Amino acid sequence: MNCLFCKIIAGQIPSTKVYEDETVYAFRDINPQAPTHILVVPKAHIADCNGINAENSAVVAHIFEVISQLAEHEGLENGYRVISNCGPDGCQSVHHLHFHLLAGRYLQWPPG
Ligand code: DGP
Known about the structure:
By secondary structure, the protein is α+β, with helices and mostly antiparallel strands. The protein has helices at residues 4-9, 58-73; strands at 17-20, 24-28, 36-42, 81-83, 99-103.
């Protein structure tokens, strides 16, 4: 499959890994929007939020457990934001489900 994040997970494209287990991979975003900007992705290819269903949703729950662990490990005591962009209006550019973990500065709300 010609998917950028599948290639990163497979090690075919280098990344700065911050966490990995059997079902989840997390790495630093190449174009950080905050001092901490980590992408947390399922290893199994799911295109976007619309691809989450009863068969694969357990990995999403696990991703949020991982995010909680990463927040502690990265020292994000002051808070953080988790975002999953979906589709053109959501500004999704990579079509492999991913959760942005952003922190380290005050994050405006609502976002632009
Ligand atoms: P989104 O726009 O929500 O689909 O986010 C995709 C993110 O992926 C974007 O913040 C930049 C990041 N990204 C794109 N290509 C690469 C890459 O080759 N390596 C890494 N580490 N991040 C990438």
